[in-house]
Amino acid sequence: MSSFHVVIISIFTCILRHYMGEELDSLNQRDLQNLEQQLAIALKNIRFRKNQLLYESISELQRKEKALQEQNYMLAKQIKEKEKEMVQQPHWDQQNHGNNMPTFSMASQLPCLNINGAYEGVATEDGRINGLDLNMDSLYSCHLGCFPA
User: Fold this and answer.
1) At 40, is the secondary structure helix, strand, or coil?
2) K-box domain location, by residue (predicted)?
């Protein structure tokens, strides 16, 4: 390494120590004032950059806040629309089912099937008409196995 580089490194090391507040005994009043002014300018630049970053961060957060508020508004609007649909849905179901469902009268009987040869309206010895066992209990107990017979 050349002597020039050694001198430059030595000077920068001394300046760095001064900036760190070390080895100030060799400085006179004018040098101390210059150092103080340089440190004040450096501190001003540091604070400016820090504030700039803070303002940018605040602006970004405000932009995100606005976007979230807009999204929240849209979601609230969708919820209200869904709630309105759910309130109206039973009315639509009643109207649609009422118009589309065939009208059966449970009181009127349909004609019985004549499967075992007995005439309509004639009961067999076990009390069944047509010989069909239409008892739901036997159906569930035999085929589904989940109800007692």
Assistant:
1) helix
2) 1-85
The phi and psi torsions of 60 (rounded to 5 degrees) equal -65, -45
Number of neighbouring beta carbons within 10 Å of residue 139: 12
76-84 contact pairs (CB < 8 A, 24+)? none
- Tens-digit pLDDT profile for residues 101-117: 554 444 445 555 555 55
Q: Are 27 and 18 in contact (CB under 8 A)?
A: yes
On whether the CB atoms of residues 10 and 4 are closer than 8 A, the answer is no
Whole-structure pTM value: 0.47
Which of helix, strand or coil describes residue 123?
A: strand
pLDDT digits (tens, 9 = 90+) for 53-69: 999 999 999 999 999 99
